[in-house]
Amino acid sequence: MKAKDIALNGLFRQNPTLKLVLGTCPTLALTTLAMNGIGMGLAVTFVLTCSNIIISLLRNVIPSKVRIPAYILIIATFVTVIRMVLNKFLPDIAASLGTYLPLIVVNCIILGRAEAFASKNPVLASCLDGIFMGLGFMAALTLMGAFREFFGSGTLFGLKVMDFSIGFFVQPAGALFTYAVFIALYSLIFMAVTNRKKAPKTQTAPTTEKEVNGNA
Amino acid sequence: MAKKESTLRCVATLTIIAVVCAFLLSTLNFLLYVAPTVDALDGVYPALEGYNWEKTDTVDGNYGNGGKVTLAAVGKKDGGADYLGLIVTTDKSGKLNQSEYAMYFNLSTDTLEYAAFITEGATGGFNWEYAEAHGTGGGATTGATALTGLLSGNDNAAAEAELKVWNSFLNVKITSENVLDFTGSIPKTGATFTVTATYSAFNIAARYYYENYVKGGDGQ
User: Fold this and answer.
1) How far apart are alpha carbons B68 and B49 in whole angstroms?
2) Residue B40: closest CA among B110, B117, B129
3) For B174-201, how does the pLDDT look when each residue is reduced to its tens digit (9 = 90+)?
4) How many CB pairs under 8 A join A and B?
5) How far is the C-alpha of B220 from the C-alpha of B218, rounded, in Å?
6) Is A77 in Cβ contact with B25 (below 8 Å)?
C-alpha cells in the first residue's frame, strides 16, 4: 500500500472516529475542550505508532494463538510510558485526561489497527498507519472539542471569543448531539468526494460507447 | 509433541515480551519519577481539615533498602497544633513494597497520630486498623504485637523516637512477613514477629522524626 493511501485512509477515508466509530468513550467524554482533543490525540498517536512498529516487527515471531495477549502487553507498556511522561512533563494535561489516559489500553483503535494492519504489514507501512490513524483521531477530537468549547463555553483553546454560551454543548447529551452532527457532516463530505471521483468515469463512458458503436 | 512445542513457544514468547516490558517500565519509572506535592497530604487525615501545608527540605530522608521520605511538610492552622506530615515510600523489601504512606506527627505531643496507606505498590497485604488490632486474633494480633516489639526494642527507630502514642492507622495494609527496620533489614532485637514493608514505613517516619525533631532539636 502506498504512503499516500495510508495517510488518506487514516486522516479521511477510514477516519477512526468518524468512519469506523472507534474510541467513542474518550471522544464523547473529553471533547468539552479543544485542548483535550489535542492531548488525547497525541497520546493515542504515540501509543498507536509505537505499538504498530513493535507488533509489525514481531509479526512473524508471535504465535497467532497468543497474539491478543501479546498485543495487550505491548500496548499497555506504551500507555504506561506516555502516562509517566505526561505526569512528569505535562501534569495539567495528564490531570485533564484523567482516567481516559490509562484507558487507552482498551481503546479499540489501537487493538484494531494492531490486528488489522500491523500484524500483516511491514514496519514502515505500520508506522505510517499508526501516525495517520492517530492524527485522524486527533483531528476529529480537536474539531469536536473546538465546536463544543465554542458553543458550550464561548471560548476556543481557552481564549474568550464570545459572551454567550449554550450549556447543552458541554453536557453529555451535547456530546452525543455533536458526534451525530460531525458524523453526518463527514458522511456528506465523504459521499460528495466519492461521487466526484466517480463522475469522470461516467463522462468517459459515452466515449467508450461511441467507440463501441463506431466499431459496430 | 508438536502441540507441546507450540504451547511452550507461546509461553516463552509471552514471557519474553513481559520481561522486556517490565524492564523498560522499571527503568523509565526511575527516570520519570514524580515526587509528591503537599496536595498529597490534604484530605487524608480528617482531623486536619483546613490546615495549610508548607514543604520543608527532607534532611537525610533516604533510608537505603527501607525506602525514603519523599515529602516532608509542616501543617499549621490558627488555634491548632502544628503537625509534621510525611509521605513515605517503601523500597523493594518485604510485601507491599514500593507503596506510599501519609503519616502525621503532632509536634506538640511527639505523637505519630495518624498514618494512612495512599498508594499500593506490590500487593500481598490485607486492610488493618491498629486500633482494632488490639486484642483480636490472627494476623491482626501479630501486627499489633510486632509493633509493640518494635517499640520496645533497643535497635529500632520507633523506640528511639520516643513516640508516646500510636493511634489509628487506617487503611494501612499488613501481612505476614519478616520484620523490617528503617533500613529494610531485620533488626537485631524485637524481631521475632512477622510484618511487612509497612513497618519499614513506620520506622522510616519515626526515624526521620527522631533525627530531625527529637535528637536534632527543632527539626528544619
Assistant:
1) 26
2) B117
3) 333 344 455 555 443 333 333 456 666 7
4) 41
5) 6
6) yes
Q: Are A17 and A137 in contact (CB under 8 A)?
A: yes
For chain B, domain boundaries: 1-33, 38-214
Q: How many residues are present in chain A?
A: 216
pLDDT higher than threshold 50 for residue B136: no
Nine-digit cell at B77? 492552622
If you search the block for the grid coordinates 524481631, which residue do you land on?
Answer: B191
C-alpha radius of gyration, chain B, whole number: 20
Q: What share of chain B is helix, strand, coil (3-state, %, to 5)?
A: 35, 25, 40
> How far apart, in whole angstroms, are the C-alpha atoms of residue B193 and residue A16?
57
Q: Shortest Cα distance from A177 to chain B (angstroms)?
A: 37
Cell of B142: 501479630
**How far is it, in rounded angstroms, from Cα A197 to Cα B132?**
76
Residues from chain A contacting residue B32 (CB–CB below 8 Å): 84-85, 87-88
Q: Phi/psi of residue B134, each to 5°?
A: -65, 125
What's the pTM? 0.68
Question: pLDDT 10s digit of each residue in chain A, 216 long?
Answer: 788 999 999 999 999 999 999 999 999 999 999 999 999 999 999 999 999 999 999 999 999 999 999 999 999 999 999 999 998 899 888 888 888 999 999 989 999 999 999 999 999 999 999 999 999 999 999 999 999 999 999 999 989 988 888 999 999 999 999 999 999 999 999 999 988 877 765 555 555 554 545 443
Q: For A88-125, what is each residue's pLDDT tens digit? A: 899 888 888 888 999 999 989 999 999 999 999 999 99
Chain length of chain B: 220
Write the ipTM: 0.79
Q: Do A87 and B34 touch (CB under 8 A)?
A: yes
